From TrEMBL:
Keyword Isomerase found: yes
InterPro entries in UniProt: Glyas_Bleomycin-R_OHBP_Dase, MeMalonyl-CoA_epimerase, MMCE/EMCE_epimerase, VOC_core
Highest classification ranks of the organism: Bacteria, Pseudomonadati, Pseudomonadota, Alphaproteobacteria, Hyphomicrobiales
Enzyme class: isomerase
Keywords of the record: Isomerase, Metal-binding
Protein name: Methylmalonyl-CoA/ethylmalonyl-CoA epimerase
TM regions (residue ranges): none
MF GO annotations: methylmalonyl-CoA epimerase activity
PANTHER family: METHYLMALONYL-COA EPIMERASE (PTHR43048), METHYLMALONYL-COA EPIMERASE, MITOCHONDRIAL (PTHR43048:SF3)
Family: Belongs to the methylmalonyl-CoA epimerase family.
Pfam families, per the entry: Glyoxalase_4
Length: 134
């Protein structure tokens, strides 16, 4: 069902510092920061030859990554995103196998403007999994 690794997301306190580190120290291609009000985060994408890294910095009062950064003050890997061909078919197949889909269970529009869903970390080896329709 899952296809390519679309991105690995890293939560950070300072997205400008993270961007500079990846651009200047690691020599990677780093996008501009984009505030995503509806998701409560600011995002930056680092484009690598085979996948992407997504930096997430809290935005606003009730950011969904605020608690994660309380537990991980230095930042850390927040989720991994796999591509699927058909997100509704993938969701229904996973639910039938007992996996928990977070939120309403209906896909939301993700940072790339494509439908995404998140799967409960306790069902997937302690890792928050995002599915994105390719
Ligand atoms: Co993501």
């Amino acid at each position: 069902m899952i296809g390519r690794l679309n991105h690995v997301a890293i939560a950070v306190r300072d997205i400008a510092a993270a961007s500079q580190l990846y651009r200047d120290t690691l020599g990677a291609e780093v996008s501009a920061a984009v505030p995503q009000e509806e998701h409560g985060v600011t995002t930056v994408f680092v484009t690598l030859p085979n996948t992407k890294i997504e930096f997430l910095e809290p935005l606003g009062e009730n950011s969904p990554i605020a608690k994660f950064l309380e537990r991980n003050p230095d930042g850390g890997i927040h989720h991994i995103c796999y591509e699927v061909d058909d997100i509704i078919a993938a969701r229904d197949q996973l639910k039938a196998k007992g996996a928990r889909v977070l939120g309403s269970g209906e896909p939301k529009t993700g940072a790339h403007g494509k439908p995404v869903l998140f799967l409960h970390p306790k069902d997937f080896t302690g890792t928050l999994v995002e599915l994105e329709q390719a």
